[in-house]
Amino acid sequence: MRSEIDIDDAVVEAPPNGVGTADPVPLSLQRTDGVLPGAAVPVLSVVLLLLLPVTIVVATGIGAVGIPADEVWEVVSARLLRRSPDVAPEVEQIIWTIRLPRVLLSAVVGAGLAVAGLCLQAVVRNPLADPYILGAAAGASAAAVAVIVLGSSAVFGLGLSAAAFLGALASLLLTLALGQRAGQVNSTRLILAGVAVGYVFSAVTSFLQLQAEPNQLRGVIFWLLGSFASAEWSDLAIPTAALVFVGGWLTVQGPKMNALVMGDDTAASLGIRVSRSRVWLLILASLVTGACISVAGGIGFVGLMIPHAARLAVGPDHRRLLPVAVLGGAIFLVGVDVIARRVAAPGELPIGIFTAAIGGPAFLAIMVRNNTWASGR
Amino acid sequence: MTRAELRSVDVVLGGTPIVRSIDLELVSGEVLALVGPNGSGKSTLLRTLYRALRPHEGTVSVDGTDVWRLRSVDVARTIAVVAQERPDDFDFTVADVVRMGRTPYLGRMARIGASHDRICADALERTGAAHLAARVFHTLSGGEKQRVLIARALAQEPSILGLDEPTNHLDISAQLEILGLVASLDGVTVIAALHELTHAAAYADRVAVLQDGAVVGCGPPGEVLTPALIEEVFAVRASVGLHPDTGRPQFSFSPLPRESNPTCHEHV
What we know:
- The structure holds two protein chains of two kinds.
- Chain A starts with a helix and ends with a helix.
- Helices cover about 70% and strands about 0% of the residues of chain A.
- Chain A has helices at about 1-15, 25-30, 40-60, 70-80, 90-125, 135-150, 160-180, 185-210, 215-225, 235-250, 255-260, 265-270, 275-295, 300-315, 320-340, 350-370, 370-375, and strands at about 180, 185.
- In chain B, about 30% of the residues lie in helices and about 30% in strands.
- Chains A and B meet through helix 1, helix 2, helix 11, helix 12 and helix 17 of A and helix 2, strand 6, helix 3 and helix 4 of B.
């Protein structure tokens, strides 16, 4: 669909019979910033930027006790300005202590997983990659479940978050090591390696699950399916720091990620130090993946779908993609978490069920849309 | 003009020597064709030139300086390449692809500005691909893709352009178009790995023949591409004629007569 629009544009803009070429820069080259005409790309980022706080306020109001948006805003602004809010104390309690940390955490994790997916897709030159496919989530979950079941002494005395982070890093680096041959990273091979690494870590997780005491099983299931049910303010620090650090770093890596997607040799000839860049991008992706999984468990498909949706909206240039993916991921996961806690109210369901239920069909749609994969290449 | 030189270059990949003590000098403004059988080291030699591969021994130098002593972006501003890889899994537009040629000129925070776009537009103009600017790259035909990738390389404003089998998978008309385009580029020295000896003879100023990673012949096509050398390197019988219009050499091939191989027959 996109190409048809672009072709029409090109036809309209082509100077008739090659005359009238006074303009030294062809209009067609200025007008090709993704589907939307040039200026609309920053507009989408701005729209999402405005939509995010609205989504957060609305999502915070939704729950067993419905709270109007103006009261939510009153509590938030009062807290930020250090005055006492003009609402009932129990309302303040629900908003500030229970709902807001949860909503903010889902926003940060959504943004973080989207960034990690975007980064990994560039690293392996494949739009179907995400932290799950490359085994990072399986590695993080295995390490976290080991801490839950065996205690931290089994994992070199590491805490849950540190173990999950190192599990993600170890599995991604293992995938990279197995996926390269003579220094060349073949993306098919890398994905196969990731699937294999994922299976091995899943086997570890399954084995540990059988060793678990009944009271530990709930924690294990949290890891496997993901949930924000126990979110607290203190959970926000690590993923937020990781998101800011990695997002900030990637902001200046756009041209590098674009060049990597072109292929190793082309990237090298464009002045990119390919192996070094690839290893660093993998470490950044592991950092933010590990940080997200350590507080939220294994939430799948966000890292696949959001970068893809962003690509459909603004094209594949990573400089335009990054802000759209970050904001889109945040808004998406806040929304899905509302579904997770309201569908079976007063009980709630793990959020991973819903991201997978939405993500599975989305994955198929992407695969069918992508000519080269659909044709079995 | 930029002068590039390979001196006693050895490349070993996975314990196997791929390129053996190659000396080669690029003459400014020429079209140099690398020919040789599959696995003779053409691509590997090119990859050492554009710094994708570090030679095991020897030096690759540009204007007398080892490319591994230069910053990678400085090499990228001198040597551009059209490799065999394609960004087909991502929906880059032609304009996106060509703009990537400006990567070595971008600072960390730099945006693609008007002056960069002008250079990209000129590059598309030079390769006759300006009308494709708004198209999605992976929807183009093979010949169109090649034109766009050459434009992307020209957007690097290189003085040396490397091409790895630029006519692969193209129909004959597209092959001639691409080779004609490459040979007509002004102010760019071209080094191209080619499979078709007739193409090499028709478009190159000089030909370097590779066999098992070593240069076994280098010079004007008419002098180097003799039936004897072709038979030795490619294991085919060649007869050389002259193209009726251009007077360049052209070749007809036939298999070598089958030699009886007693050790083989005994085991059958």
